[in-house]
Design a protein that fits this description.
The complex is a heterodimer of chains A (109) and B (200). Chain A is mainly alpha-helical. Chain A is built from four helices and no strands. In chain A, helix 1 (29-43) runs parallel beside helix 3 (68-82). Chain B has 200 residues and is mainly alpha-helical. Helices cover 48% and strands 11% of the residues of chain B. Chain B is built from eleven helices and four strands; from the N terminus they run H-H-H-H-H-E-E-H-H-H-E-E-H-H-H. In chain B, the strands form two sheets. In chain B, strands 1-4 form a two-stranded parallel ribbon. The chains are: A mainly alpha (109), B mainly alpha (200). At the A-B interface, helix 1, helix 2, helix 3 and helix 4 of A face helix 1, helix 2, helix 3, helix 7 and helix 10 of B.
Chain lengths: 109, 200
């Protein structure tokens, strides 16, 4: 195992915030955002968690070496395309437009 | 940051901007979800559940019979909290939790899963050779203890109810909760030694 999940000393203190797992769940802001986006979408009437989960399982199975949050993002795109919420072509166009923005623009997150 | 990851970050931004424009998702809800799972929910919730079960026998029975309702009694649950099942360690049985297909995990009581829980190594090896993986993670179990591996899914998100350690007879639930680690509730670690509660 690459990491050593030993007991988290910081959990021993009574005032430790519950998030103190001693490990980072999100390494990049986009990972946090795609998580929040997916959960928010599944809380709405637009989709349900199981629909997303089945696609996540497929994406993880197709490439075990791919980083987890990349599989997650791919699964979300699958869900959006399959449910016609967001057509791949429309997403590609917006993605291209955002990539073409000049450097140094303000990311809003 | 690599080029690929940077592109992904922009792609996620593009997804969000389109979904917001189409009124399919509320950015405020996204912020709330992130805030909730980063700052409000974590293993301390599960530790309180375990400590309550150790000190309140009827509660322990309710927890083992219907985990979702029992954790809701302590205020833990919500939209992502369906179907939590508690499995109890005994002197002869040790339980450990995995999600072989993805990353199902009892968010309301443990927060979001650690990175290793989602790794292909943990997901495949914990089923094939649990005793060996546990040993590598620092948990040596006597041969006579049976290891039971629980595969989580959306229908059943497991948490382990560890054994109450000896020497804790005089301790109340608050002090006991300080002994309960996330890893003990996944089943890959032990609860902390008794003096950890006093030091805390």
């Amino acid at each position: 195992m690459a990491e050593s999940p030993v007991i988290d000393a910081d959990l021993a203190g009574p005032v430790s915030p519950p998030r103190d797992n001693g490990e980072i769940v999100f390494e990049a802001p986009w990972e946090r955002r795609v998580f929040g986006l997916t959960v928010a979408l599944c809380r709405s009437t637009q989709c349900d968690w199981e629909s997303f989960r089945q696609r996540l399982i497929r994406r993880i199975a197709e490439d075990q070496a791919r980083p987890y949050w990349e599989s997650w993002a791919a699964a979300l795109e699958d869900l959006l395309a399959d449910t016609a919420m967001l057509a791949p072509a429309e997403l590609d166009a917006r993605h291209g437009a955002f990539l073409a923005r000049p450097h140094g623009h303000d990311h809003h997150h | 940051m690599s080029h690929v990851v940077d592109e992904l970050a922009v792609r996620v931004e593009a997804v969000e901007s389109l979904l917001v424009e189409k009124d399919l998702v509320d950015p405020g809800v996204i912020d709330d979800v992130i805030e909730h799972y980063q700052h409000s929910v974590g293993p301390l919730n599960g530790a309180k559940v375990v400590a309550r079960a150790w000190t309140d026998s009827p509660y322990r029975e309710r927890l083992l019979a219907d985990g979702t309702s029992a954790v809701a009694e302590l205020g833990f649950g919500g939209p992502e909290g369906q179907l939590i099942i508690a499995v109890e360690n005994t002197p002869s049985v040790h339980n450990v939790v995995v999600c072989t297909l993805c990353s199902c995990y009892p968010w309301p009581v443990l927060g979001l899963p650690p990175r290793w829980y989602k790794s292909p190594e943990y997901r495949s090896r914990m089923v094939a050779e649990p005793r060996k993986v546990l040993s590598e993670m620092g948990l040596e179990l006597p041969d006579e203890v049976r290891v039971r591996v629980w595969d989580s899914s959306a229908e059943a998100r497991y948490m382990v109810l560890p054994e109450r350690p000896a020497g804790t007879e005089g301790m109340d639930a608050e002090a006991l909760a300080r002994l309960v680690t996330r890893d003990a509730m996944i089943g890959v670690g032990r609860v902390l030694p008794v003096d950890a509660a006093r030091d805390g």
